[in-house]
């Protein structure tokens, strides 16, 4: 189910970049990124979303978990978005203020995405680099393991993680991250295969540097570019994955919330005349994803000299 | 000498006749004519694990079995037992032997007569460990001789205390007298199965191709998780009083989706109404949004085990938490589908149960809140020593909604921080069963219409006593009640003790709320157990 | 080529074995069991049921018996939850359903996705390109569980054109909405992959040469650019096809289609071990087979690739 949303397109999408060298490339990249209007606008939007997620709470007098029992009985009429009672986005279906919950949800969704990708990137890169560097039988076995893990019912893994470690947001981040390092590992391996034949690696081998050191010193830094790009593209994927997990009821624990949980709740109320419950969280969900996608795209173009 | 029971043969015929008349009356009184379209489509949330009478375990599956098969007794629209395949029965003086006389016009849908030996076969099949029926314990509950030792593997299934003395006489031997025995044989687990088919076809005999039943309907189509069609049986003995010709059951997992499809006219009856939607639906569809009280209680368990947190051992804290729950807001504003605020464990609708005057019920919520605050302070909790409580519930919109409301009531009234522990179903069951919780959500529906089906949970030996509540007085009152002529007094006393010691927080008594198309008539709304038969229903022509 | 196929299939067997064992370990590690219920069963009734399904055996024995039954009898056992049916019954009923709507979703997603991708790449940085990119990101981001209720609201309740759910043996009216709901996100992914790989190909030397020679654009695209550009799309389509034909729990549960997507997720929640395993194996086998098919197609499209 997870992979129905992950798009291995990045596999084909990612530039075959073997020629990351020196600092000038980074400076070029910044220049190219700045020239990409969609990416720059998205970056601005992204910064605004971050600010909203961190400080948005200040603008509202309401607490995210406070149920207003006076309005609870008739949300359809009393819970409409209103400036007067400062429920800017109205009430959600349990009678809590939707605005502060969207702030909270955005914060958690972005955290899930970012922390999840960091886990995926760290694990995936190391695994892929080791597999690719050693090659041969080690590579074969390590990659078959990845294949098998991809086929394992992902829900059991999530359930197990939540059972063993309890339902904390941190565990959810780690769990999702651990599920999504697999594709990262494949990409890192592919890149390592080309890098390891480069002169500087061969020189290091010839001068007797230990394999672990070569991987950490020479291979991984050269994977950095591709990894950064992949990470930004992974963030929106993980946000989507979290929303699916929330749909199954395994996501973030109440009274915490995520954009996915808010959307799932809002969608269930679609037919009851409380459109705002879906509209606001969905809006923030979509612009966050758009922003991440375009920034990721821009980064990829910027870091790939051959493309333009 | 044998005692002829209240339900003698002539009374039975009278009843059947009256039931038939009731239909005729309906048409006459309301001047309603039957529609040409006699199909009925209803929705269930999930598919049934089994629709084999010997294996069936869920409520919706039982409804299917009641259409496809007929047991010794049926229930009428009020839930009283009326003759089914048995026209009458006798009870021996020691009340240990029941003799059922079966009607001679009952036949299986393949034309074979329904005989007493089909019942014998079916009952032995349920008890037999090889069948592995999840309802094998029902034979034990009915106190059928040897049932316990058969289930425990100590005796052969053949030794079960049930025999066919001839084709139309079934004799049941009980190990102890059981006043409710005739009511118990309206339960689907006691329904007959066609020995000649089950033995020949094997495990897959319930497939539509090989299906044989003795009910008012036969199974013609079944796609699990999608739809099931049952069609009126011509071989049913009372077929002329059966109106619906086709009953379709659709599985729709999402209740909001089911409601949309009901609005689109694809479904005549939904299983549920989404939490909180009843008030507006009943305004929009006053004739069709239905809510009836149910014999079920929704409550929270405190964990009273020794390893549970200290506060849970303190009766003052438990009472404070219970008092601070505003049942009126929950039943009116949060759920709003006709649920009844609960201050006692047993629902007031239970037959022969008088709701005792517990103190909390007569107070206003302000008074309750004041008392709760005082109790909590007395117990030493407050702003300098804040209390944190975890509510454990399983993943479900309805449970979440209630947990959120209650956690906020505790926070707003008592300043208690609550964490909500939402767990996936199996994980939840494991945690609750192992006592790995502080407060846990629970629901209980009566197996039969009598208070002991609820209060037995308070016995220290009960397997369902998740709070691990132990009180010797309650135990002895319960034991005593089993043999009492009128146990009402004991039940009242138990409720009072439970109210004082607060091992659980009764929150509300259930109501079954659903949408029912207004052309469908005959739904047994007065049956608190919601036992319905498709043959009770009919569709009237739209004006 | 033939030897290659044999070799790949030979590796598949141990892979599936490991998959079975791992899934079993996960299942045993998860709390609960298939016969836990709100009302716990009396202990001796539970014992009888567990004995009936072999759950009283040690773990290794359960796995061993399971494998023996599959290998020698091709018997996947009875469902633990749906007592009247076997795992084979459930798969033979549910798989054709998801296969049908999955196949049509695949067709729709590929046709729309590839055309959109090519159009966007050819008109790079035009309005059409921005539109295509915008739509595909949106389609990829919009959760299924929002789309499904919206579709039912619009097509069933408001317009009254299509039935709101069910399957009815796969009549077309019942297939339309599942196909729309399932295909969008795949369509979006396909469009984006096609676009970026097409862009890369269009910048390649041989295409520039062709252009310089003044060949018409249409011909360049279909004769020269399409084949190499489609390769990365193909490697995405293999796993995607398997995903689609094994269904989606959201589609199955919203549209009540009775497909195996739903059975699979329910089985996980109900701890219906045998159904769980049966569908996992089905998915595993399909994944291996279609990855192989993709590799063969690769070789067919690009003769330079040799196995």
Automatic annotation (TrEMBL), chain A:
Q: Which domain of life is it from?
A: Bacteria
Q: Which CDD domains match?
A: TM_PBP2 (cd06261)
**Annotated ranges, domain ABC transmembrane type-1:** 106-295
What InterPro entries does this protein's entry cite?
A: BP-dependent_transpt_permease, MetI-like, MetI-like_sf, OppC_N
Which keywords fit this entry according to its UniProt record?
Answer: Cell inner membrane, Cell membrane, Membrane, Peptide transport, Protein transport, Transmembrane, Transmembrane helix, Transport
- Residues annotated as transmembrane: 38-59, 108-134, 146-165, 171-188, 219-240, 275-296
In the bilayer, the protein is annotated as:
Multi-pass membrane protein
Q: Does the keyword Hydrolase apply?
A: no
**Compartments reported by the entry:** Cell inner membrane; Cell membrane
Indicate yes or no for the key word Repeat: no
**What PANTHER family does the record point to?**
OLIGOPEPTIDE TRANSPORT SYSTEM PERMEASE PROTEIN APPC, OLIGOPEPTIDE TRANSPORT SYSTEM PERMEASE PROTEIN OPPC
Q: Which family does it belong to?
A: Belongs to the binding-protein-dependent transport system permease family. OppBC subfamily.
What this protein is called in its record is Oligopeptide transport system permease protein OppC
Which species expresses this protein natively? Answer: Marivivens donghaensis
UniProtKB/TrEMBL annotation, chain B:
Gene3D superfamilies recorded for this chain? Dipeptide-binding Protein, Domain 1, Dipeptide-binding Protein, Domain 3, Periplasmic binding protein-like II
Q: What is this protein called?
A: Peptide ABC transporter substrate-binding protein
Domain Solute-binding protein family positions: 81-465
Q: Where is the signal peptide?
A: 1-24
Per UniProt, the keywords (alphabetical) are: Signal, Transport
Q: Which PANTHER family match?
A: PERIPLASMIC BINDING COMPONENT OF ABC TRANSPORTER, PERIPLASMIC OLIGOPEPTIDE-BINDING PROTEIN-RELATED
Family, per entry = Belongs to the bacterial solute-binding protein 5 family.
From TrEMBL, chain C:
Q: Tell me the keywords, alphabetical order.
A: Cell membrane, Membrane, Transmembrane, Transmembrane helix, Transport
Q: CDD domains under this entry?
A: TM_PBP2 (cd06261)
- Is Mitochondrion one of the keywords UniProt gives this record? no
Main localization of the protein described in the UniProt heading = membrane
Name its cellular compartments.
Cell membrane
Residues annotated as transmembrane: 9-30, 101-122, 142-162, 174-193, 229-255, 275-301
Note the topology in the membrane. Multi-pass membrane protein
Every ABC transmembrane type-1 domain range: 95-298
Q: Return the Pfam families for the record.
A: BPD_transp_1, BPD_transp_1_N
What family does this belong to? Belongs to the binding-protein-dependent transport system permease family.
- State the protein's name: Oligopeptide ABC transporter permease OppB
**Where does this protein come from, organism-wise?**
Marivivens donghaensis
Whichever gene encodes this chain, its name is oppB
């Amino acid at each position: 189910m997870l992979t129905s949303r992950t798009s291995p397109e990045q596999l084909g999408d990612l530039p075959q970049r073997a020629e990351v060298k020196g600092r000038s490339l980074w400076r070029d990249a910044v220049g190219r990124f700045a020239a990409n209007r969609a990416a720059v606008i998205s970056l601005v939007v992204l910064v605004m979303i971050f600010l909203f997620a961190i400080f948005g709470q200040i603008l509202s007098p309401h607490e995210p978990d406070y149920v207003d029992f006076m309005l609870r009985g008739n949300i359809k009429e009393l819970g409409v978005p209103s400036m007067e009672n400062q429920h800017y986005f109205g009430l959600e279906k349990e009678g809590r203020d939707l605005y502060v919950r969207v702030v909270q949800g955005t914060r958690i969704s972005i955290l899930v995405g970012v922390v999840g990708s960091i886990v995926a990137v760290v694990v995936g890169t190391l695994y892929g680099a080791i597999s690719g560097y050693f090659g041969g039988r080690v590579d074969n076995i390590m990659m078959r393991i990845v294949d098998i893990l991809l086929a394992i019912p992902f829900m059991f893994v999530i359930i197990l993680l939540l059972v063993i470690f309890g339902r904390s947001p941190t565990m959810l981040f780690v769990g999702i991250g651990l599920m999504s390092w697999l594709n990262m590992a494949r990409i890192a391996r592919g890149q390592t295969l080309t890098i390891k034949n480069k002169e500087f690696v061969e020189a290091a081998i010839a001068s007797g540097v230990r394999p672990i050191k070569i991987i950490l010193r020479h291979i991984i830094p050269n994977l950095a570019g591709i990894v950064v790009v992949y990470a930004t593209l992974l963030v929106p994927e993980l946000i989507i994955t979290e929303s699916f997990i929330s749909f199954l009821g395994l996501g973030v624990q109440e009274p915490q919330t995520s954009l996915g949980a808010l959307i799932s709740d809002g969608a269930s109320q679609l037919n009851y005349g409380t459109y705002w419950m879906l509209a606001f969280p969905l809006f923030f969900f979509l612009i966050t994803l758009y922003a991440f996608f375009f920034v990721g795209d821009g980064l990829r173009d910027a870091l790939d000299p051959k493309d333009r | 000498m044998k005692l002829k029971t209240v339900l003698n043969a002539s009374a039975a015929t009278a009843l059947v006749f009256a039931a038939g008349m009731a239909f005729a009356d309906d048409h006459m009184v309301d001047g309603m004519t039957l529609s040409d379209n006699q199909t009925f489509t209803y929705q269930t949330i999930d598919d049934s694990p089994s629709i084999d009478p010997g294996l069936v375990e869920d409520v919706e599956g039982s409804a299917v079995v009641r259409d496809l098969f007929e047991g010794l007794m049926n229930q009428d629209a009020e839930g009283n037992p009326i003759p089914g395949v048995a026209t009458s029965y006798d009870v021996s003086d020691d009340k240990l032997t029941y003799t059922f006389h079966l009607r001679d016009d009952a036949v299986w849908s393949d034309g074979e007569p329904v005989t007493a030996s089909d019942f014998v076969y079916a009952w032995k099949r349920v008890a037999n460990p090889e069948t592995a029926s999840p309802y094998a314990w029902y034979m034990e509950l009915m106190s059928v001789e040897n049932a316990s030792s058969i289930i425990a593997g100590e005796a052969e299934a053949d030794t079960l205390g049930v025999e066919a003395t001839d084709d139309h006489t079934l004799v049941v031997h009980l190990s102890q007298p059981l006043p409710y025995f005739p009511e118990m044989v309206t339960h689907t687990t006691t329904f007959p199965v066609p020995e000649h088919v089950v033995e020949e076809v094997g495990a897959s005999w319930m497939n539509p191709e090989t299906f044989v039943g003795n009910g008012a309907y036969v199974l013609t189509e079944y796609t699990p998780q999608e739809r099931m069609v049952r069609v009126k049986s011509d071989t049913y003995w009372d077929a002329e009083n059966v109106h619906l010709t086709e009953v379709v059951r659709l599985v729709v997992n999402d209740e909001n989706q089911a409601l949309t499809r009901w609005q689109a006219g694809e479904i005549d009856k939904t299983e549920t109404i989404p939490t909180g939607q009843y008030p507006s639906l009943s305004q929009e569809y006053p004739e069709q949004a239905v809510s009836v009280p149910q014999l079920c209680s929704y409550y929270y368990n405190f964990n009273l085990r020794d390893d549970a947190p200290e506060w849970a051992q303190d009766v003052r804290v438990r009472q404070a938490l219970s008092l601070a729950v505003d049942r009126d807001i929950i039943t009116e504003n949060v759920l709003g589908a006709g649920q009844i605020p609960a201050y006692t464990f047993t629902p007031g609708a239970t037959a022969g149960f008088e709701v005792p005057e517990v103190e909390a019920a007569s107070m206003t919520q302000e008074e309750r809140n004041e008392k709760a605050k005082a109790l909590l302070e007395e117990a030493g909790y407050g702003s300098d020593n804040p209390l944190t409580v975890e509510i454990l519930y399983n993943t479900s919109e309805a449970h979440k909604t209630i947990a959120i409301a209650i956690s906020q009531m505790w926070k707003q009234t008592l300043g208690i921080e609550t964490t909500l522990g939402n767990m996936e179903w199996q994980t939840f069951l494991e945690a609750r069963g192992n006592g790995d919780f502080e407060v846990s959500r629970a629901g209980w529906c009566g197996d039969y219409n009598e208070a002991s089906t609820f209060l037995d949970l308070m016995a220290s030996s009960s397997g369902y006593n998740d709070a691990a509540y132990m009180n010797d007085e309650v135990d002895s009152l319960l034991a005593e009640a089993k043999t009492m002529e009128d146990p009402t007094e004991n039940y009242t006393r138990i409720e009072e003790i439970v109210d004082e010691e607060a091992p659980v927080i009764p929150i509300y008594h259930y109501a079954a709320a659903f949408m029912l198309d207004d052309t469908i008539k005959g739904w047994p709304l007065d049956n608190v157990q919601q036992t319905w038969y498709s043959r009770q229903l009919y569709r009237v022509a739209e004006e | 080529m033939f030897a290659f196929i044999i070799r790949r299939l030979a590796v598949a067997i141990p892979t599936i074995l490991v998959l079975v064992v791992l899934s079993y370990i996960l299942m045993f590690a998860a709390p609960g069991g298939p016969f836990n219920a709100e009302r716990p069963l009396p202990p001796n009734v539970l014992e009888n049921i567990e004995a009936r399904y072999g759950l009283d055996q040690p773990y290794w024995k359960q796995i061993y018996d399971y494998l023996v039954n599959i290998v020698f009898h091709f018997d996947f056992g009875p469902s633990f939850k749906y007592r009247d049916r076997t795992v084979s019954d459930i798969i033979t009923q549910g798989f054709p359903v998801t296969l049908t709507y999955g196949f049509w979703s695949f067709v729709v997603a590929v046709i729309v996705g590839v055309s959109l991708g090519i159009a966007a790449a050819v008109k790079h940085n035009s309005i059409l390109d921005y539109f295509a990119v915008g739509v595909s990101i949106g389609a990829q981001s919009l959760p299924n569980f929002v789309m499904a209720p919206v579709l039912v609201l619009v097509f069933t309740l408001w317009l009254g054109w299509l039935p709101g759910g069910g399957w009815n043996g796969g009549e077309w009216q019942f297939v339309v909405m599942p196909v729309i709901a399932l295909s969008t996100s795949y369509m979006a992914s396909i469009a984006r992959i096609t676009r970026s790989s097409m862009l890369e190909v269009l910048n390649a030397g041989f295409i520039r040469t062709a252009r310089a020679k003044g060949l018409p654009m249409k011909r360049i695209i279909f004769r020269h650019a399409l084949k190499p550009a489609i390769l990365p799309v193909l490697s995405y389509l293999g796993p995607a096809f398997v995903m689609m034909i094994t269904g989606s729990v959201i589609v199955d549960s919203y549209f009540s289609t009775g497909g195996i997507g739903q059975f699979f997720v329910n089985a996980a929640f109900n701890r219906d071990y045998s159904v769980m395993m049966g569908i996992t194996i089905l998915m595993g086998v399909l994944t291996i087979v279609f990855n192989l098919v993709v590799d063969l197609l690769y070789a067919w499209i690009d003769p330079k690739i040799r196995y």
